[in-house]
Amino acid sequence: MAELPEFIESGEAARLIPVTADSNKEQRAASIVLAAMRSIYELRQSMLGSLGVRVGNRARLGAWTEVTFKEEKSAKSSSKKNDRPDGLLVLDTGKKRWTALIEAKIGNAEVDEEQLQSYVQQARAHKIDAVITITNQFVAQPTHHPIKLPKNQTRNVELYHWSWMYILTQATLLLEADGISSPDQRFILAEVTRYLNHDSSGVSRFDSMNREWKDVVAKVKNGAKLNKNSEEVENTVSSWHQEQRDLSLVLSRKLGQAVKLRLSRIHRTDPQARLKSDCELLACEHVLRCELDIPHAAAELHVEANLEKRVIVTSMRLDAPKDKKKTSARVNWLRRQLDNVESEGFFVKAIRPGKAESTQAPLGLVLEDPEHLESENTEAVPTAFEVRYVTDQASRFSGNKVFIEELERAVPHFYEQVGQRLRAWVPPPPKMKSDPVNTASETEQEEEATPPDDRPN
């Protein structure tokens, strides 16, 4: 285990079984997670790897809770309990040392801006590399943060965020993928996940949209204009961003594979640009969208919540097979993949090139007869198919919790019935062509080599 830095007066080594008051759930959860990272190589590799920190086999990780800085002891006026972080990580590679302060909140508690600024100042003063917050808030990536601080305040200090559910999901994936080499460490990680899964831990999923959600849906329904810069629109999009992340974690646990949000390069690096872009989308088009990247799936999974129609649409789009010349043959290629699915609520759209008419029909009808996707107005064949699952919630759409419940039912249902069955079209390998010149030459040689009496009349 790495040693405590010189600027730390004291610290309690992170324990898997911490001795704390029942009311101090934050300290208990932080101690358990930090101790698990210290004792399980694969877990610390996964968690620190999410921050871009490489963990080698020989690197030592130290983890402490209840850390006290030396100046706090001498300057009692500055030793406020709220200014003391919940933990400290020190990764020592032998050649280099990486350090991070940890601040954890449990339940509905959140780190406020003033508190976060204090931790960043402490980190800068002691040349600590990063500040990591752990709460029940969700972000698209650990490099994003729920609180936006001015760049001049975070100079030389990286700011990261893990949700408790993110930690739980990473641990679950390691267990399900049999990614822990030591049986003893596997047992420890299983106990940690058992604790984090229990209601008493204070770890919770994102289960409700923002309080303005109902009013925003009502305004769209009544034709009122939404202001992209308003607090209600920003809060709605922020809630949607949290739900996107939770949805990807829900699918990750169900599939035993890491499901990721598909974000543009600018949105990966700039969460404020992402927020602004999605606020414009909501204000102008009255929709919320996201894309999920599922390992080895035929295509990315699209999710759209349409506030005007009050529906949730889950879909995947595939290129049609180019080696088939007729519409019916291309539709039959898709039909064979979706035989015997529960087709209620599912639709298939045949997309044609240019301005040629696209056609759509319920999946049930398409499975009965491919002619349902034929067009009377064009002979152009489909170049792509989109399979959609539409959930019409009507008045239930505006329910803060009902919306989340229905969304997290609809997306896994779509993937179970359709997504996991779809296979992308792969062009067949090229075949060897016979050479007419060589074939003729070979025939002449055979005739010359055949005795006259044996040649056919």
From TrEMBL:
It comes from the Bacteria. Residues 423-457 are annotated as: Disordered. This is Stress response protein. It comes from Thioalkalivibrio halophilus. The lineage of its organism: Bacteria, Pseudomonadati, Pseudomonadota, Gammaproteobacteria, Chromatiales.
